[in-house]
């Protein structure tokens, strides 16, 4: 087996291989795009860095594994895309990829993070064997279109049209992208941002992504002003997002990740018809104390 830095002429084949892996719960790793074309664009963006940010494992010309790293903008933190491998040699392939990559990455980054479905036992074993620590656990809830009950929509829910300071105030500090990035993303038609406004005051928002190449969307963020909790604002935003997903965008499923430390949110979603689907776990590792 040979571990190589990912090359431009390998992008298409590796992207197709990754798409096949990630569509299975037992191999799923978060932060990787779904469609081969989107994956190719995503991992292709890792090639221009001065230091290698993507590696592929090959055996007799066949792809055996992959690991990549996306940096957080302006931070010494990286999000792992991988390691991916499967079969009886999966653990050995993952370790070989990690050994090669870590030599480069520990000189650039201080912390690495990875998130994946709990069913992915190979990556779970990898994390536990290499000193990663669990920092988050989320249930992934799902609402099928046939379980959606259309209800009257609140007139207070409107598309985002400014009010950035209030949006930034509501947005969680530890989110995987910030408020500025969120408002930039809505220029892409796959993303939507709706706000709950009363008298020109934003009291909550919901950020939604239509997953490219798939028949589903995801509620990425739902935030409501602390002083307005329990007033039905969250429910109004969720109902509006589901209406848009099912009746306007023609999707078949809406999913949402809910932290295990947030039972109130889980209760709210389940009251609106969502059901438990999968569990996502997130691990982190400090690789450079400097």
Write the layout of secondary structure elements.
Layout: E1 2-5, H1 11-22, H2 36-44, E2 54-59, E3 62-71, E4 77-85, H3 90-105, E5 111-117, H4 121-129, E6 133-144, E7 157-159, H5 164-170, H6 179-185, E8 191-198, E9 201-210, E10 216-224, H7 233-248, E11 253-259, H8 263-271, E12 275-286
Helix pairs in contact: 1-2, 3-4
Protein name: GNAT family acetyltransferase
Keywords: Acyltransferase, Transferase
InterPro entries: Acyl_CoA_acyltransferase (IPR016181), GNAT_dom (IPR000182)
Overview of the molecule:
This protein is of the alpha+beta class and 290 residues long. It folds into two domains: 2-131, 3-Layer(aba) Sandwich (Aminopeptidase); 142-279, Aminopeptidase (3-Layer(aba) Sandwich), CATH 3.40.630.30. The chain has helices at residues 11-22, 36-44, 90-105, 121-129, 164-170, 179-185, 233-248, 263-271; strands at residues 2-5, 54-59, 62-71, 77-85, 111-117, 133-144, 157-159, 191-198, 201-210, 216-224, 253-259, 275-286.
């Amino acid at each position: 087996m040979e571990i190589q830095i990912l090359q431009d002429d390998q992008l298409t084949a590796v992207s197709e291989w990754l798409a096949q892996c990630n569509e299975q719960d037992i191999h799923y790793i978060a932060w990787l795009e779904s469609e081969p074309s989107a994956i190719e664009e995503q991992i292709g963006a890792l090639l221009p860095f001065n230091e290698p940010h993507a590696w592929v494992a090959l055996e007799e010309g066949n792809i055996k594994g992959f690991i990549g790293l996306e940096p957080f903008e302006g931070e010494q933190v990286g999000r792992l895309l991988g390691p991916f491998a499967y079969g009886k040699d999966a653990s050995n392939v993952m370790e070989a990829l990690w050994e090669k990559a870590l030599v480069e990455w520990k000189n650039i980054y201080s912390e690495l993070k990875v998130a994946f479905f709990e069913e992915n036992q190979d990556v779970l074993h990898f994390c536990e064997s290499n000193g990663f620590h669990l920092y988050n656990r989320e249930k992934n809830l799902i609402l099928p279109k046939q379980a959606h009950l259309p209800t009257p929509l609140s007139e207070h829910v409107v598309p985002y049209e400014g009010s950035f300071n209030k949006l930034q105030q509501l947005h969680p500090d530890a989110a995987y992208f910030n408020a500025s990035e969120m408002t930039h993303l809505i220029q892409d038609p796959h993303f939507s941002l709706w706000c709950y406004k009363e008298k020109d005051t934003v009291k909550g928002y919901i950020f939604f992504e239509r997953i490219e190449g798939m028949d589903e969307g995801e509620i990425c963020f739902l935030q409501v002003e602390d002083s307005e909790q329990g007033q039905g604002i969250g429910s109004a935003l969720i109902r509006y997002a589901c209406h848009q997903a099912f009746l306007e965008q023609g999707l078949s499923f809406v999913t949402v990740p809910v932290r295990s430390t947030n039972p109130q949110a889980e209760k709210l979603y389940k009251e609106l018809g969502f059901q438990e689907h999968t569990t996502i776990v997130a691990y982190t590792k400090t690789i450079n104390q400097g």
